[in-house]
Amino acid sequence: MAAAAAAAVGGPQPPQPELPAAGLALDKAATAAHLKAALSRPDNRAGAEELQALLERVLSAERPLAAAADGEEAGGGGGGPGAAEEEALEWCKCLLAGGGGYEEFCAAVRAYDPAALCGLVWTANFVAYRCRTCGISPCMSLCAECFHQGDHTGHDFNMFRSQAGGACDCGDSNVMRESGFCRRHQIKSSSNIPCVPKDLLMMSEFVLPRFIFCLIQYLREGYNEPAADVPSEKDLSKVLQLLEPQISFLEDLTKMGGAMRSVLTQVLTNQQNYKDLTSGLGENTCAKKSHEKYLIALKSSGLTYPEDKLVYGIQEPSAGTSTLAVQGFAGATGTLGQLDSSDEEDQDGSQGLGKRKRVKLSSSTKDQSIMDVLKHKSFLEELLFWTIKYEFPQKMVTFLLNMLPDQEYKVAFTKTFVQHYAFIMKTLKKSHESDTMSNRIVHISVQLFSNEELARQVTEECQLLDIMVTVLLYMMESCLIKSELQDEENSLHVVVNCGEALLKNNTYWPLVSDFINILSHQSVAKKFLEDHGLLVTWMNFVSFFQGMNLNKRELNEHVEFESQTYYAAFAAELEACAQPMWGLLSHCKVRETQEYTRNVVRYCLEALQDWFDAINFVDEPAPNQVTFHLPLHRYYAMFLSKAVKCQELDLDSVLPDQEMLMKLMIHPLQIQASLAEIHSNMWVRNGLQIKGQAMTYVQSHFCNSMIDPDIYLLQVCASRLDPDYFISSVFERFKVVDLLTMASQHQNTVLDAEHERSMLEGALTFLVILLSLRLHLGMSDDEILRAEMVAQLCMNDRTHSSLIHHIPENPNPKSGIIPGSYSFESVLSAVADFKAPVFEPGGSMQQGMYTPKAEVWDQEFDPVMVILRTVYRRDVQSAMDRYTAFLKQNGKFPGNPWPPYKKRTPLHPSYKGLMRLLHCKTLHIVLFTLLYKILMDHQNLSEHVLCMVLYLIELGLENSADEEADEEASVCGPERCHDSWFPGSNLVANMRHFINYVRVRVPETAPEVKRDSPASTSSDSLGSLQNSGTAQVFSLVAERRKKFQEIINRSSNEANQVVRPKTSSKWSAPGSAPQLTTAILEIKESILSLLIKLHHKLSGKQNSYYPPWLDDIEILIQPEIPKYSHGDGITAVERILLKAALQSRMNKRIIEEICRKVTPPVPPRKVTAAEKKTLDKEERRQKARERQQKLLAEFASRQKSFMETAMDVDSPENDIPMEITTAEPQVSEAVYDCVICGQSGPSSEDRPTGLVVLLQASSVLGQCRDNTEPKKLPITEEEQIYPWDTCAAVHDVRLSLLQRYFKDSSCLLAVSIGWEGGVYVQTCGHTLHIDCHKSYMESLRNDQVLQGFSVDKGEFTCPLCRQFANSVLPCYPGSNMENNLWQRPSNKSLQDLIKEVEELQGRPGAFPSETNLSKEMESVMKDIKNTTQKKYRDYSKTPGSPDNDFLFMYSVARTNLELELIHRGGNLCSGGASTAGKRSCLNQLFHVLALHMRLYSIDSDFNPWRKLTQLEEMNSQLGNEEQQPEVPILYHDVTSLLLIQILMMPQPLRKDHFTCIVKVLFALLYTQALVALSVKCNEEDRSAWKHTGALKKNTCDAEKSYKVLLSFVISELSKGKLYHEEGAQECAMVSPIAWSSESMEKYLQDFCLPFLRITSLLQHHLFGEDLPSCQEEEEFSVLSSCLGLLPTFYQTEHPFISASCLDWPVPAFDIIAQWCSEINSFTERHAEQGKALLIQESRWKLPHLLQLPENYNTIFQYYHRKTCSVCTKVPKDPAVCLVCGTFVCLKGLCCKQQSYCECVLHSQNCGAGTGIFLLVNASVIIIIRGHRFCLWGSVYLDAHGEEDRDLRRGKPLYICKERYKVLEQQWISHTFDHINKRWGPHYNGL
After folding, report:
1. Of 538, 608, 740, 1594, most Cβ neighbours within 10 A?
2. Which residues, in sequence order, are CB contacts of 164 under 8 Å at separation 6+?
3. Which helix (H) or strand (E) holds 1448?
4. Chain centre distance of CA 1436
5. Cα 1498 vs. chain centroid, distance in angstroms?
6. Cα(1251)–Cα(721) distance, rounded to whole angstroms?
7. Crossing angle of helices 1534-1543/1442-1463, nearest 10°?
8. DSSP secondary structure string for all residues of 1331-1376
């Protein structure tokens, strides 16, 4: 190749031999330099040709791809396909650099970068930020770096994970405010950047066109049209893999900055270049072939190349159809006819696709060009074409986006994108990976269309709106089916089929979201709203969704397949119809935009009219079907609302005629009735999905685009239509017409009896909502927000985020009410109180909640709003319960209140007509009938019905018309009212109108029939009565028909009448029903009289109503009617009567008359109504009190019996928990209760009882450190945590040091293990028989439902308290009282006791005979061993040696004592038997351990007891030189010695033996303290002390003076080399303090305290003595006297001296000398180690978890990009251990070892099976315990006290100290298993 290149350069030179590689590189550089020089000359034609020839050679597209194609098959073919490409890239880099180094060239270009924009491009899952305060466009986003470098304090921002990818907008003032720019992009730096020197980029201008052309040739070559059946993803991705280096190279070029970008822009957009290179003319066969492939690709995409149109389009109409019959785009021609014949099999062929109605588009020629013609004029255009063809490969997308900071490119690219829009849609529909592709499309388009300036330009120059609308229309046209709404056979309407992939998978969303995005720009939206053609097309598009997803009610059997298409339908309406609508509405805010509204409304009505015609709609909706999707109705409604609210349009000018209004109201009303039917379970055979639809319809994200516009439209219709017609329509739609009869029985032809009541409630509730809702009828935005918020808070307390979620926001982002915006927060603080997060002892953590303020309950609670907004009916009940509770608590109302009545916001004048509904006879008849029926106790009526009836009457009185002023004058005789029921239509007047007789139609069986018709006693003759009072009463339906007919006639559409043969035939009763006859009822009531009787009925007393104004005339003059009234039915009736009386004198008089009639006159003095009320209240209260008392008594007795059976948990006098002892002290056996069989009895050898225990391995002790400050979690690279200073590490080092120099078996007795992986035993205190337990386990094993614990591992829950457990600890038979015998002090001397101890230890402990008890003891010991891992048990050098078991067993005791000490706070000052002691099982544990330890007898020669209590002859030391010596006694851990000594004794132990052991060991401990002290201080101090102490050596109590003892120790140890070799390192150990006698005493006491604490605890458990409480400073003296170390008289002495506790078993100086000599002989050889072993750190502080930073962001930013130290990748789910700070990959397969993932592995190594991890990407803490795990919750909360799991909201989070404390507490107390309830197995996969 080099030769070829050289030939090309040097012209006619002879061919040179191949150069070696190095030469080649030089050669490239030289060639490049030569060319650069040639091109810099003024006449550079020769150079240019030379370069062209070279590039032609280097970048020939033929070879690599051919090689690739063959190579892949033939297994790599020689040098592999990559070699040639790499070579080509090398050439390019050389040529660009013009002979220099490529790196230097890059740096040089970067220097000229005028970086005003950031433009960083990211892909999915990148963490970015969005600040709503700084954003102009809602899509604005910033990369983390720009965000943190800008100032966003106090802004409304959040962090988010990018879904589709994006780019950083920092520096772009079109998208965000400049105040938010970061420091780098604030400076408009273009001014001071020097001009780019011409020669720097000269080569690039020549080389790049060829390079890009080469890339395009590759793409052309590589593309093979997929066969119809096999997707060709494989082939495409292969080609893309090959091109990876080229595209990356381009991407790197874009990153060089502005200078290089502008060169690239020139290259990409230059049309001449493109034409020259790609035309396919000329002699080059390769280019020709590539051009042909390009044309084929165009053709197969259903696109034509303009010049070829004649050839392809007309002569071969079928060309290409075969290749591309995918998803309904038929082929290469663009003719509309062709597009129509979609492939049938795609639609199951069942839908009758042939009959699909084509929708005429605005102009076919324009469309045709939009859909089918593409002409590429530049590289950019063809590159985009291939990018689409290859389904948007990520690399290409990133390259194209990286260029965007170049303004010129941005415009060109946007135009190109728009030009390809139709093609994008087609490719998207065919794609198999539509999700990925959608994300990539949006990744690009959101960058282009969010910019208003750009969007406007493209709209003007490229018909962007036409293209988008047309493309959307085409897209939906591919999945239309015939609508079955209304008239199935003859319907001409088509709707989208929601079952199609296009809708089901939301494939349309990229296009719709682009459309919504551009409509958010005012300039673009205005163009749209002005363009009539576009509006028509758009309404066409919307009508595809009108009536989709039709539900037909199943009447016979349950539907076999529940389709889930409804979600697709709701999503489609929301995204494709509603959101663009909200976008348009946001630009219709002012009066000047009236014209737009008129346009939309006009075309909307036209579309609706077409729709009604298409479905053949007359006036009756088809029964039993409902669709929730009426987008046309909703467009119309929302634009009306906007017109009245913001644009001051006259409503009537945009309303259609009456007939159209009647049609408009039918379908929304049908939906309301269907909702009631669904909630009455009438649709139950349609499955759950129909309930799902009813819920989605009112759900917060949908309600303001669905139910709100529907109800508003109904309100508009009601305000303009005849009220009688409207009311009768409502009852007819709700199917309760037949129920509204005075007769006690009736026939309902359309409804089962069981549904009647709920449907009637539904109808009345609907009317109440219709009449009281003011959302679109006059409320301001702030009032709406407040009402919504109150409704949500009344249902339940809510967190801030759930409020934001539940409050319907205006879906258009630019609307202004964004949750989190100023108004939201201010309204929230006005209506709610914040309840900070609380912690319950059960560990369930509450979030911060908002709860309604008292005055909100008192004045704003609005049940109507609550009913409208509840998804679940139970929320209404919940709101009422909370309201009731509030009233009771504040003493406002004691009983069961009714929903309160609330005054409404005044109506906007345009809607005044709505109130006519309340003043129409039809409604009054209904109300009268219902009151009558309730009074007569007819069936199927409820309190709820009455409540609604009264509510409607009250509404009517509040909104009465003012016609009543001159009522008295105009009262004419009754003969005037020939109209059947009421004289007029005013409710106030009609209330007092008496109705005497009513004629009803009843079944013959009804009781009414048997009565005689009333005799004509009344002054009227019967005839006239029937004429006036009873004629044509209840044909509500006929009434509606009559009105309908009138309206129709009025609009003089005679032609229409012929079409209406439908009379009310379908309402006549079916023949099977019993015959109806007519009966006449005597009623003689008016609404007023019914109300008064109701009052009597409700209060349960005769004549309970007494008009209040008779006593207090003031009430009428100054009525204080509150805006808001609490109370029940009685108060409601009283309120209504008062209002009626206020409104007219006539009513007042009539009320008084009725009361007089009902009540006989009484003497003047009588109880006033107010007093009566209080009496009533008293009586009610009394009853309630008695009831409560009774309940409480019953409850108490129940509780008592439970407590007795559940045994005495806290019996203070017993040491063994849970036993019930009787008063006589003679009883010797401890008695246990078995919680399974319930029997009580002692634990015996053959039927042992056991304690329920949980054994767990614990490393909590190992985490103790010697300083109180917890370590911080590292948040920078510098910070690191080293585990050297933990208790576990120190003990490990000590043991391995001992094992290096001393005999192994002796080492294992000198220390304790179990700091890491020690076994902790805890119990809930309940006991059970071991045989009962076994059968309980069997039953659990068979009952596999109880997951969460594994029965095979012996896990279970305590049968009584359900606490988690995994073993049973046998209780040792024996008495509780035995202790008393053993505790009597004996007068034996210390020496005698020492001998006894030695003898007892010497007795071999034979294992007791094989009893059940001993078997259990063995098995529990096995459990204890298996609880921890082997590495935590085996420390011996000889594996399996018995010394190991011995060490392990006494260490278990040590671990449990140490942990209990930590649970008590690290000291015993609080004393008492704390709760830890109550539930302690140490006593039983000691028995088990002692029994096993006695099996190993220590060889009496090696028993440390000897060394402690006897002086040895010196010669015995000489014998063991050759073998390793034993551990010197001063290196022994005294606490371990204590446990060994006690466990070696036969149990139970005698108290005086115990004290004896403690005394002996205390002497050793004290000596150790003195030795350590002597090593700590410096030489001068030592000699001084040695001297002073020696003087007092012969005084009487020398053995109890620490000064004497210290001086003796120093002098003894000086004999060895311990104090020698004081080099530099010595000073490190020496503490610089000058030692005073106080500080020395303190040191000695601190050294001894840990031992005293453990010993006291042990004594407390073994002998059941209480621990005394004390101050911290006197802890030492109190504990030592409690242990019997201090003679009692000592306590008076004032300055307490620790040495006074000493009681030497043998002369002190002799034994000390003996101990020191052991040390000296060791330090002869190893002075350093000898010293290290003497200084023991015994003062460990309490363990803590790591300290976390205040702000979560610091953790997140550091860890979420941090690489894992094991696999060096950035983990997908990073986690941090909160105990030690280790960074791990959660679930990462990369770090898996022997099938354990890293977190599980770490939990075993760090916490012996317990791990606490913070999941960095989720802010949640996860606990691993053994084989289970649980999500614990989060310790970081946002400003509103809420967790943000998975960082979904991305708000700033702050540490919650209380929660972290709770977590730490649970860790230390090992209670994760008990407190957290949701555990699951992790199968080692975390």
Report:
1. 538
2. 124, 438, 439, 440, 442, 443, 446
3. helix 1442-1463
4. 50
5. 61
6. 80
7. 110
8. HHHHHHHHHHHH-TT-TTS-GGGT-EE-TTT--EE-EEEEPPPSBS
Q: Which stretch of 189-198, 1213-1222, 1601-1610, 1696-1705 has the lowest confidence by average pLDDT?
A: 1213-1222
Report yes or no: 1321 and 1481 within 8 Å, Cβ to Cβ: yes
Residue 901 tokens, joined: 């009545």
Q: Collect contacts of 1403-1412 with beta carbons under 8 A, ≥24 apart.
A: 1403/1546, 1404/1494, 1404/1497, 1405/1491, 1405/1493, 1405/1494, 1405/1495, 1405/1497, 1405/1546, 1407/1491, 1407/1495, 1408/1491, 1411/1245, 1411/1246, 1412/1245, 1412/1246, 1412/1247, 1412/1248, 1412/1330
Burial of 688 (0-12, 13-18, 19+ CB in 10 A): exposed
Cα(306)–Cα(292) distance, integer angstroms = 15
> What's the per-residue H, E or C state across 1600-1635?
HCHHHHHHHHHHHHHCCCCCCCCCHHHHHHCCCCCC
The four Cα atoms 632, 637, 638, 641 give a dihedral, to 10 degrees, of: 160
Question: What does the angle CA 296 – CA 301 – CA 302 come to, to the nearest 5 degrees?
Answer: 105
Q: How many residues does the chain have?
A: 1886
pTM score of the predicted model? 0.82
Q: Which of 75-84, 674-683, 1145-1154 has the highest mean pLDDT?
A: 674-683
The helix-helix angle for 594-614 and 631-646 (nearest 10°) equals 160
Residue 558 token pair: 């349950």
Cβ atoms 313, 335 nearer than 8 A: yes
Residue 777 corresponds to which tokens in the numbers above? 């009828």
Residue 226 confidence class, pLDDT cut points 50, 70, 90: low
Alpha carbon of residue 692 to chain centroid = 21
Angle between helices 379-389 and 407-419 (to 10 degrees): 50
Q: Give percent helix, percent strand, percent coil of the chain, each to the nearest 5.
A: 55, 5, 40
pLDDT of residue 209: 82
Max Cα-Cα span within the chain: 144
CB-based contact 883:897 (threshold 8 Å)? yes
CB 411 within 8 A of CB 268: no
User: DSSP of 945-1004, one letter per residue?
Assistant: HHHHHHHHHHHHHHT--STTTTTTTT---GGG--SSS-SSS-HHHHTT--EEEEEEEEET
The DSSP bridge partners found for residue 1252 are 1368
Of residues 1363 and 1118, the one with the higher pLDDT is 1363
- Are 935 and 1097 spatial neighbours (Cβ–Cβ below 8 Å)? yes
Instruction: For residue 834, give the 3-state DSSP assignment.
Output: strand
Phi then psi for residue 626, to 5 deg, are -150, 140
Residue-wise pLDDT tens digits, 1814-1824: 999 999 999 99
Cα–Cα distance measured from residue 1460 to residue 1452, given in angstroms and rounded to the nearest whole number: 12
Residues 6+ apart with CB under 8 A from 1318: 1257, 1258, 1259, 1261, 1428, 1432, 1451, 1452, 1454, 1455, 1808
Contacts (Cβ under 8 Å, ≥6 apart) of 728? 737, 922, 1036, 1037, 1039, 1040, 1043
Angle between helix 434-449 and helix 394-402 axes, rounded to 10 deg: 0
Characterise 378 by phi-psi region: left (phi > 0), alpha (psi -120 to 50), beta (else): beta
Bridge partners, 1854 (sequence order): 1751, 1837
How many angstroms separate the first and last alpha carbons of the chain? Answer: 54
320: which DSSP letter? T
Q: What is the CA radius of gyration of the chain?
A: 47
3-class SS at 1232?
strand
How large is the average pLDDT for residues 1399-1424?
A: 79
Tell me if 1714 sits within 8 A of 1512, measured CB to CB.
Answer: yes
